[in-house]
Design a protein that fits this description.
This protein has 641 residues and is an alpha+beta fold. The protein folds into four domains: 48 residues; 285 residues, Tachylectin-2, Chain A (5 Propeller), CATH 2.115.10; 110 residues, no CATH class; 94 residues. The strands form eight sheets. Strands 24, 25, 26, 27, 28 and 29 form a six-stranded antiparallel sheet that branches. Strands 30, 31, 32, 33, 34 and 35 form a six-stranded antiparallel sheet that branches. It has a five-stranded mixed sheet with strand order 4-5-6-7-11, with no helix packed on it. The longest helix has 34 residues.
């Protein structure tokens, strides 16, 4: 028996598709089983063709015909009662109110209607399936609305030029004009900074091509060679370095244009094609009415240096330059269409995506790209269209058209990605673009993001962490010597500013001593020219209940107490006798205050703790570089009043 799931969920999501999938499997299994039984019946089954299996034009089977005739005969012979004839007449009326000449005709009609109804039901099911699939793969760019996807956070304070969301790794690559080339920033799916490289001579990075080939991720880019000629190259990403023409694994890419015009590439990995945006000689712009044209080629042809152009389209001047023109801000292509993204930074002038037919070169439509606003306001009264991508989901082959925008004033740029999505693509991309959290979702401190790290400056992801004692002992840039790392520390890393500088805070976890805290600023931007960190700054906290912190056991001389500036130690009489260079050992307990004077000098203030004798104080200066006292001890004698 075929049992289908008939109570389908009303949401066209994963559960609905799973239920449809189950029904299709059941129908397929039932059909195959029926076919196998039919073959067996036709070829191997013995005594199979009884009267019930022999077909008849009118009665369908011989057995059915015999039964019908037999029942009619019995009815004629065995009819009883004075109302039997009326009852037979009434039975000739079917459930639709139609009266048939005989009861036999009525039954034949019922059978025919049943067959027709079954076909109508199957047709309705097929129509519903087609409608669901049409909704599932709907991609109507002119009619669909833009949806916000994510915000990118590079460390270069310039507008975005282009971006690429890699469908294999989920990582995002973003370009920004910088000096004589462009910065290429690598980010997580949520736009969080990971690393960057500088492509010197690479132009503004208006758009690049990105491609996985032989398990290697290639970046296709314009660049100037050593003699200043325009070249198209490809290279792999390397973090935190500057590359120029010919560096590392850089290879020249075949273009079919020995005249070396200005060319920038875009790659459609799904279709294995590459687009070249080529600039005409300036002397031809007016005559052609075009500044740029595009070529589409097969990647295989380019790899094999075969000069074969599939499509060519001139881009109208109004979409590139001129007094009323729209500056080009990005290009994408696929499924027979070219998407040309234009606009400037004036929020009063709309930005557009213009779609062209790749075969005819004619404009199909133009859609306003009104993204980046908060209500009716653009931050900083600035909205510049920047970057476009036709994204393909690797698992389902569904698509999304992604568009970028930069908003905000000069020092506060915000780089956003919005899109038009096929069903489920948006949910999938937003699911992998969770915002950076300060702590784990359960509320606990975050897991350290760097394995086997030896420097706290390696931890650049914002958040709250915890360092166990064993962690502190292996760190090279910890503010205390190894002997004093006898406890755990809370470790906080702030969000970076535009220059890639963060605040790091270390707080000792203790219940019986001072809660010491250290703060510093760390530059984690390796291109900033100020790569490094400030000294740790000790924040002087004192317990309200006056808990004492004894001079550490490993300290044997007063010149060792400059470890922590602005720190108060307690030294009992026994310890004062054990400390070399103590000004008055063995007499009483003492507080020792460490005062930072310069980076080379600190001062110790030693004060007697007493309730009966006069308070006395000693001060002296010490060298931080020579680890010795540089002044005599000066005594400030107290007098009892």
């Amino acid at each position: 028996m075929l049992k289908l799931q008939k109570s389908l969920t009303t949401t066209l999501g994963y559960d609905f598709r799973q239920q449809l999938h189950t029904n299709f499997l059941r129908v397929e299994d039932f059909s195959n089983d029926f076919y196998n039984q039919f073959i067996y019946h036709k070829t191997d089954e013995l005594d199979a063709h009884g009267s019930q299996q022999i077909t008849d034009k009118r009665f369908k089977t011989v057995e059915r015909g015999l039964n019908v005739l037999n029942n009619r005969y019995n009815n004629l012979v065995l009819s009883k009662g004075k109302n039997s004839l009326q009852e037979v007449k009434d039975a000739r009326l079917d459930n639709k109110g139609v009266s048939h000449p005989t009861l036999f005709d009525r039954l034949q009609s019922d059978t025919t209607n049943f067959e027709l109804d079954k076909e109508e039901v199957l047709k309705s099911v097929n129509d519903a399936k087609e409608q669901v699939l049409a909704q599932e793969f709907a991609f109507d760019i002119p009619k669909q609305n833009w949806q916000y996807l994510t915000n990118l956070s590079p460390w270069t304070n310039a507008v975005m030029q282009s971006f690429h969301l890699d469908n294999k790794t989920g990582l995002i690559y973003m370009t920004q004009a910088y000096g004589e080339g462009y910065k290429l920033t690598k980010m997580k799916s949520n736009g969080q900074f990971m690393s960057q490289m500088y492509v010197e001579g690479g132009g503004h990075g208006t758009h690049n091509g990105y491609r996985w080939h032989d398990d290697k991720f290639w970046i296709y880019s314009f660049i100037k060679d050593d003699e200043g000629f325009n070249k198209l190259v490809r290279f792999s990403y390397r973090p935190d370095i500057t590359i120029t023409y010919g560096d590392y694994d850089m290879e020249e890419v075949f273009t079919g244009h020995p005249e070396l015009p200005y060319i920038t590439p875009i790659i459609n990995e799904e279709e294995q094609k590459i687009l070249y945006r080529i600039e005409y000689p300036k002397s031809e712009w007016e005559a052609r009415g075009s500044m740029n044209y595009i070529e589409i080629r097969n990647l295989e042809d380019v790899d094999n240096r075969i000069d074969n152009v599939i499509n060519t389209i001139d881009i109208p001047m109004r979409l590139t330059d001129g007094p009323n023109g729209q500056p080009m801000q990005g290009v994408a292509f696929g499924d027979g269409e070219l998407y040309w993204y234009t606009g400037d930074s004036d929020p009063n002038i709309p930005n557009f995506i213009t779609a062209f037919d790749l075969e005819t070169g004619k404009q199909n439509y133009q859609k306003v790209v009104d993204i980046g606003r908060t209500g009716n306001v653009f931050a900083g009264n600035f909205q510049e269209a920047e970057g476009i991508q036709l994204y393909y989901d690797k698992d389902t082959n569904k698509k999304a058209l992604l568009a970028g925008v930069t908003v905000g004033a000069g020092n506060y740029r915000s780089h956003q990605i919005h899109g038009i999505f096929m069903r489920d693509v948006y949910d999938k991309l937003t699911a992998q673009s969770l915002p950076t959290l300060q702590y784990e979702t359960g509320g606990r401190t975050k897991t350290l993001p760097v394995e086997n790290f030896i420097r706290l400056s390696d931890i650049i992801e914002p958040g709250e962490y915890y360092l166990y004692t064993v962690d502190t002992k292996k760190i090279l840039d910890f503010p205390l010597p190894t002997e004093m790392r006898d406890g755990g520390y809370f470790f906080e890393v702030s969000a970076p500013n535009q220059a890639g500088q963060v605040k790091q805070v270390l707080t000792r976890n203790t219940y019986d001593r001072d809660i010491m805290q250290f703060v510093r600023i760390v530059s984690i931007n390796k291109f900033s020219g100020s790569n490094g960190s400030t000294n740790w700054n000790h924040v002087n906290y004192s317990s309200i209940e006056g808990r004492r912190e004894y001079v550490p056991d490993h300290v044997t001389n007063m010149n060792q107490l400059g470890i922590i500036p602005n720190k108060r130690w307690y030294c009992d009489a026994t310890k004062s006798s054990q400390l070399g260079d103590h000004p008055n050992p063995g007499v009483a307990g003492w507080t020792i205050d460490v005062e930072s004077v310069t980076e080379y000098v600190f001062k110790l203030v030693v004060t007697r703790v007493t309730s009966a004798a006069a308070i006395e104080k000693y001060e002296a200066y010490f060298s931080t570089t020579e680890n010795k006292r540089t002044s005599p001890w000066t005594k400030f004698a107290g007098e009892k009043i």
